[in-house]
Amino acid sequence: TKERHLRPFLDHLKAEIPHSLGLDAEDAARAVFEVICDQIDHGEVAKVLKMMPRELRDLWPLLAQLDAADT
Question: Measuring CA to CA, which of 28, 41, 48, 60 is 20 to 30 A from 67?
């Protein structure tokens, strides 16, 4: 998405998640980012995080945030 702020980003996710699943957009985003962290090289994740606005970086697992801060 093109959203650069947390609320519009979560609103966009909420609109895309089928209501019948009953998922919270923030919980879903955190879960997806955690899976990405588990599956992709930490250096690559750090590069992605550095390109994201701070508000959206806060959705990523703390370890990924720390890795991004170190590079």
Answer: 28
**Cα-flanking dihedrals φ and ψ of residue 44, to 5°?**
-70, -40
Rounded Cα distance, 22 and 48, in Å: 28
How many CB atoms within 10 Å of residue 33?
19
For tokens 């990405």, the residue is: 36
**Entry pTM:** 0.84
Question: For residue 20, what are its two tokens?
Answer: 């019948």
φ and ψ of 27, to 5 deg: -65, -40
| CA–CA dist 9, 69 (Å, integer) | 23
